[in-house]
């Protein structure tokens, strides 16, 4: 006998003073569901989650939670008024003797329950709200961007906790790796329609593109049919005095259908303008260190950053990533050592604290009030990469409508604030980008676009992020803050860094866990070789470790595929592992060929 849904939404309609957010929406959440809720910024994800939580009343329709069940909601901006400490807030409503649940969550999420609410940061408040929800252990957890302000260790703890819970949950998140690991179904909001797919976030983009391609094909067929019928209607006037009124009505109906179709929102028109070319050497740090009192932030550390490098800085919150970047860019001085900056640098900074945005300013004033963007004598123009542009037109490039131009910054969602900050950043020419947690609150499509833009950017990028997928897509070097002031440089992105440390990689639900790869053999110091550029020398030195990692992955995949029952019992896993084996073999062949060519070039052959 089928169990009743945990949550049932039936014929929901909701309007906020304009176009409907949802109309005639119905969906269910089953017991034990693990659901990704995805969609563009502003599509209504958080609103739908609040409807599920009973915090927003729909204009029409019914929301039914299974009798005896509870839904818990983690909001992005929790109200802690009336509580002295974060722990007081997190423990509120718990039965006596179960406060230990908060202590356990606080340890995993890395916040101090004794911290006074008045002095707590926004990130600490959000972590307290998440701990409160986890401690209450409701049958349905509604999580709105739970990984924001969490470092990688805390994200890993949360992943493990959610993978073991028996509760159902719905997650809004920009963190692809997090969604891939945890979800088994996907709800996609697109122009007020919600589609459900009984698979996790893995493969979501392919599914979305298939739907859009089918939609475009149907629209083109309808356009062609309208054009043909319209030609018949016009020609029929002269050919016949009495036209087929049924065909005329059908044409009118087709035109009405076409007019009612809502076009997809385009991607933000983001672009970066590389300023004058910097010198080949951008940053040379030798023996730099830093301490605040007895707390050592950085032990002596060397780093060379060349023009065009993409360097990611990873590590726990408070490890000193931002401090290190501020030393590397000359904003603060190291206690020891020296930082030499290259010539002709023009630096642009994306600040995770959004300090560049005044919450009481309008979006219009936020742009026109920036001295670097102001056009002399024009209150409605901004300078965008050397050219004047109307402020509303530039805001539209970043998916803001005209009505938002005079709205205060405080009215924006987290993702909209991030887009506004990117609009300010991208208006100015630069050749060194400093991006401190740029991915927080951005939707998947905007992240894809930002990644593409960074790939085409001719300048240099310093990136602080806890988004493992984004680091893999962008970085070619990773600096890991490993505790006790130690900073270690690794070639490649997040996955390469973890492999070189021999650490396990998280697996997607139902997939075999990736085994730890052995650490690469140490590369002996070598003299500069004739005929190689600096980049080629660096590549030649890192290739043996890459080859060794690929060989280890091929061995593990071959072992996994050696099970004669695998194809019969798990055909999907068999196909995926087979594809991965072929991919790794091709990568190994390419790496070995590249190593041979560089070795021959270095030897003068």
From TrEMBL:
SMART domains: AAA. Residues 500-523 are annotated as: Disordered. It is an enzyme of class 3 (hydrolase). Its EC number is 3.6.1.-. One of its GO terms (biological process) is DNA repair. It is found in: Cytoplasm. ATP 1 binds at residues 39-46. It comes from the Bacteria. Keywords: ATP-binding, Cytoplasm, DNA damage, DNA repair, DNA-binding, Elongation factor, Hydrolase, Nucleotide-binding, Protein biosynthesis, Repeat. ATP 2 binds at residues 315-322. One of its GO terms (cellular component) is cytoplasm. One of its GO terms (molecular function) is translation elongation factor activity. InterPro entries: AAA+_ATPase, ABC_tran_C, ABC_transporter-like_ATP-bd, ABC_transporter-like_CS, ABCF_ATPase, P-loop_NTPase, Uup, Val-tRNA_synth_C_sf. It catalyses: ATP + H2O = ADP + phosphate + H(+). Residues 7-216, 283-517 form the ABC transporter domain. Probably plays a role in ribosome assembly or function. May be involved in resolution of branched DNA intermediates that result from template switching in postreplication gaps. Binds DNA and has ATPase activity. Belongs to the ABC transporter superfamily. ABCF family. Uup subfamily. This is ATP-binding protein Uup. It comes from Paracoccus methylarcula.
């Amino acid at each position: 006998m089928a169990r009743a849904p945990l949550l049932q939404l039936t014929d929901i309609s909701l309007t906020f003073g304009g176009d409907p957010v949802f109309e005639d929406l119905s969906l269910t959440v089953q017991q034990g569901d693990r659901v990704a809720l995805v969609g563009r910024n502003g599509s209504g994800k958080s609103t739908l989650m609040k409807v599920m939580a009973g915090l927003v009343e729909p204009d029409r329709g019914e929301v039914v939670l299974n009798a005896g069940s509870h839904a818990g909601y983690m909001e992005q901006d929790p109200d802690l008024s009336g509580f002295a400490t974060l722990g007081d807030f997190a423990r509120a409503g718990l039965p006596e003797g179960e406060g230990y649940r908060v202590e356990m969550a606080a340890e995993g999420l890395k916040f101090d329950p004794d911290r006074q609410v008045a002095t707590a940061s926004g990130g600490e408040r959000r972590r307290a709200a998440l701990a409160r929800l986890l401690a209450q252990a409701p049958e349905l957890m509604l999580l709105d961007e739970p990984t924001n302000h969490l470092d990688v260790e805390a994200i890993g703890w949360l992943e493990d906790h959610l993978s073991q819970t028996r509760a159902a949950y719905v997650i809004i998140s920009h963190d692809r790796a997090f969604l891939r690991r945890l979800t088994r179904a996907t709800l996609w909001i697109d122009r007020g329609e919600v589609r459900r797919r009984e698979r996790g976030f893995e493969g979501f983009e392919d599914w979305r593109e298939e739907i859009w391609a089918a939609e475009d094909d149907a629209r083109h067929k309808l356009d062609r049919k309208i054009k043909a019928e319209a030609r018949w209607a016009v020609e029929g006037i002269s050919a016949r005095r009495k036209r087929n009124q049924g065909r005329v009505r059908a044409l009118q109906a087709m035109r009405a259908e076409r007019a009612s179709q809502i076009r997809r929102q385009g991607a933000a028109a983001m672009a970066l303008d590389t300023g004058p070319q910097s010198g080949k050497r951008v940053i040379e740090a030798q023996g730099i260190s830093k301490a605040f009192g007895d707390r050592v932030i950085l032990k002596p550390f060397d780093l060379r950053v060349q023009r065009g490098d993409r360097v990611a800085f990873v590590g726990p919150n408070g490890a000193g990533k931002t401090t290190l970047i501020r030393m590397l860019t000359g904003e603060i001085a190291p206690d020891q050592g020296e930082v030499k900056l290259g010539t002709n640098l023009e630096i642009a900074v994306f600040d995770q604290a959004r300090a560049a945005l005044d919450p009481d300013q309008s979006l219009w004033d936020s742009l026109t009030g920036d001295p670097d963007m102001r056009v002399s004598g024009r209150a409605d123009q901004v300078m965008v990469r050397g050219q004047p542009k109307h402020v509303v037109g530039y805001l539209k490039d970043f998916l803001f409508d005209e009505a938002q131009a005079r709205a205060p910054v405080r009215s924006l969602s987290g993702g909209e604030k991030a887009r506004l900050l990117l609009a300010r950043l991208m208006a100015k020419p630069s050749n060194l980008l400093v991006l401190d947690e740029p991915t927080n609150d951005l939707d998947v499509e905007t992240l894809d676009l930002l990644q593409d833009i960074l790939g085409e950017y001719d300048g240099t990028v310093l990136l602080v992020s806890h988004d493992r997928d984004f680091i893999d897509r962008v970085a070619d070097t990773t600096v890991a803050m490993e505790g006790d002031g130690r900073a270690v440089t690794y070639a490649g992105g997040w996955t390469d860094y973890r492999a070189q440390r021999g650490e396990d990689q998280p697996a997607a639900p139902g997939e075999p866990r990736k085994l730890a790869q052995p650490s690469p053999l140490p590369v002996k110091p070598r003299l500069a070789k004739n005929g190689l550029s600096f980049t080629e020398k660096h590549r030649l030195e890192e290739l043996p470790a890459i080859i060794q990692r690929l060989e280890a992955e091929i061995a593990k995949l071959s072992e996994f595929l050696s099970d004669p029952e695998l194809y019969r019992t798990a055909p999907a896993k068999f196909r995926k592992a087979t594809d991965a084996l072929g991919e790794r073999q091709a990568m190994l062949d390419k790496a070995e060929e590249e190593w041979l060519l560089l070795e021959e070039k270095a030897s003068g052959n």
